[in-house]
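Budget justification note: compute hours in this period were largely spent on complex prediction jobs such as the one shown. Inputs:
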Amino acid sequence: MTSQFPQFFDTRAFGRVLDSAFNDVVAAYGLTLELIFLPVLKALLAMEQLLLWLPWWAVLIGFSAFAWLASRSAKIMATVALLIFLIGVIGVWEQAMATVALMLVSTLMAVFLGLPIGVLMSRSNRVQGIALPVLDIMQTMPIFVYLIPFVMLFGPGKIPALLATIVFAIPPVIRLTNLGIRQVDVEIVEASRAFGASPMQVLTTVQAPLALPAILAGINQTTMMALSMVVIASMIGAGGLGYQVLQGIQRLEISRGLFAGLGIVFLAIIFDRIAQAYGKRMQKTLKLGA
Amino acid sequence: MKTKFTFAMLAAAASFSLAAPSAHAADCGTADSVKVAEMTWISAGALAHIAQKIMANGFDCNAQVIPGDTVPTATSMMTRGTPDVAPELWVSTAQTIWDESLAKDIAYKASDIFASGGEEGWWVPDYVLADHPEIKSVLDLKDNWQVFAEAANPNKGRLYGCPPGWGCEIITNNLFEALGLGETFELFSPGSGENLKASIARAVAQKEPFVGYYWSPADVIAKYKLVRLDMPAFEADKFKCLTDSNCANPEVTGWAVGEVAVAVVTSLKERAPDVVAFLSKMQISNDDVSAMAAWGDENSATNEEVANHFLKNYDAVWSSWVPADVADKVRAGL
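Corresponding output:
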């Protein structure tokens, strides 16, 4: 026989209370929560429809132009154009656009929320002390634990997928913003203060630019993590490439899973190359300026 | 010398064969291990543990429960001969694989696990029928789409389809087309069984309308008081087309009563004949299954605990599956 840990309180009864309380919350606020996030959903759907409405060559040119602006490198631009083309060739264009829409919106929201939190953390040790364990929990808690409750709260589909993606993908941008700002040379900060810069000026003109490579690395990681969520998000009805992977696995259609998987890989390479090239270019300009 | 030896052997053989019937206790034969597939839902999970416990305690088998799901498990049984037993295999969900396994004599149906078979279809919570008496059958959905519209897409009703990869996905998609629901309904793919369940839980908690795929027996049916929408009578040839993803002209027909098999690999007949005899008697009424699953849900019990609950409280059901001495051993092991 295995030995047992003594039971200090009735976990099952406690669990039941928790479950029924959650059900009450769903019953009372479920619809309201869904309505609050309806604008986000509409934005997401509009984004997806725009990407699908545009002819494929327009999307290709758009991405290539974006790559050129970020990298100023013909090689990277050509790579991006080729990969976009390949996504269409392997026949997952529609799904890829749905995935791009979900990923872009969730990354934008993660950055939008994550940057201020990261800045706040870098300015106060107490905030950092509270935020770090919370971030640890967010990164290690298995996704399914909060995925299904999200579905019950927000209804199935893209909204819980978006929120779960944000929870999963936001930690890197927060962590690296915090770290980047804290790693800025103290003497430089002191020097700028000595010249009479206000705390806000120190942040925007000294700390933020010097921390930019770290922050960009964080954003890059956040993008990659958002992309890695697409398969899991499709399990709650988000559609996109992940859904194809899921169908491929469940039906043992290796080819379908492989093509959709390749589509995800291509998207990852595209976003990674663009973000990295931009980061490197920023670093170079900053070093030249210093 | 030679004759003597043969004579001794004959005598020995005779004494063995005489002694065999009385001394032979039901056992696990020559099987090193018997693997039972534990599917993802509660009834199949509990049945897997019930079978495992009876084999392990009653027949002294090295019986293991391994995770599975309908199509992957059926495929694995066919291609690799493992797991040995799938106590609740929904045949229609893995029809082609299953037919092939039967044809190649790799697996066979030991018994129908549910006395009245499996019921699949589109279900609504009971309050939907009470509030909208005009909705009775799947044919009434098209004109009453407003009832099922959701905020995300107010111009169409939402029909929760079948999770991807499940066999019912193709049937649901074809039936959706056959009923002409595309004009007024959006066929929403829930992505996974968990998500389908969570969607039902959400709708019922808010007393919101819901219509979607489900099956019985299942804890969800009892817990959320779901009612199956009527369907036209079952017609085999039309239904066959519905199960084909390339069905050119899907027509409305009733859902076939699900053949839910205790699927067993044929080689187990030789390896563990006594266990196979037990599996051929394994059958439960649909009501008992739903009650068992509902108990499990109410008490947030694990599949194994549900199995123990069943073995303790439904003695009359399972003890008829096995010889009396085996039943005693199973009871002793509880």
